Amino acid sequence: MGWVEAVVLGIVQGLTEFLPISSSAHLRLVGELFGWEDPGAAFTAITQIGTEAAVLLFFRHDIARIVTAWLGSLAGKRKGDPDARMGWLIIVGSLPIVVLGLLFQDDIETTLRDLRIVATALIVFSLILFWADRVGAKQRELEDLTVPHGIGFGFAQAMALIPGVSRSGGTITAGLFLGYSRSAAARYSFLLAVPAVLGSGFFQAYEALSGDVAGRGVAWGPTVLATVIAFGVGLTVIAWLLRYLDRGSFTPFVVYRIVLGVLVLALVQAGVLDPT
């Protein structure tokens, strides 16, 4: 991987991680369109450390409050504290993606990166998001979150193991179906992703250092640069998206996903893109 490639992919990662359009799909597509080698699941996971660092900075006060309350609950203090409860719900909601990610790691890094699967996921899950945005009551806020809802969010997040689904898109869709407001669903999506994404990123970094990432190593200089760029761009996108959701719908993202998915399928059919 070259430095120019790292800059482009870092910008793409930062722009797409929090929007419901799938960062893993875009990293896969951009590399193919420019004739670059597929950056791979390891590169995606490691650069996501940068975007999650943006979440940690943007929500630093909320996260510090939640962590403090959760630690207090371990000591038998602050029982019934909503922040401690949120901490436990984030842990419970993170379990599905951790378990499924470990079970299907090989498929995630190989089979599921087929462009035909990516494009199909972009289209199908955009329609589900559109439906959820239309029928969701949008009356619940984060203080209304329950354990069953937290688990539901968790399984929705796990669907993002398929490139093209979108981590934020999956969890936001689940939140809308469960009656949460757009901004509440988005906020919980960001918080829920922190342990899973950081865990995946550091796990992939460890495997890369041990020289066992899908049979090839990681170009550390460009990867670190891409991660730093993803952090800066991602921080800007978080702020913009939360402001946008106070007044806007997900329809533009749905249209974009459908157009992109159809275009990719057409290019694959025409032989312009190699799906594998």
Taking the alpha carbons of the first and last residues, their distance comes to 19 Å
Secondary-structure content class: mainly alpha
Give the overall shape, derived from the CA principal axes: globular
What's the mean pLDDT score?
A: 87
- Beta content: under 5%
Largest sheet: none
> What is the overall number of helices?
12
Question: What do you see in this structure?
Answer:
The chain is mostly helical. It has twelve helices and no strands. The protein starts with a helix and ends in a 7-residue tail after the last helix. The relative contact order is 0.20.
How is this structure best summarized?
This protein is mainly alpha-helical. It has twelve helices and no strands.
Task: Give the topology.
Blueprint: H1 3-16, H2 23-33, H3 40-58, H4 60-74, H5 82-103, H6 105-109, H7 115-135, H8 147-158, H9 167-177, H10 182-209, H11 220-244, H12 251-269
Helix pairs in contact: 1-2, 1-11, 3-10, 3-11, 4-5, 5-8, 5-10, 7-9, 7-12, 8-9, 9-10
Task: Tag the structure with descriptive keywords.
12 helices; 276 residues; mainly alpha
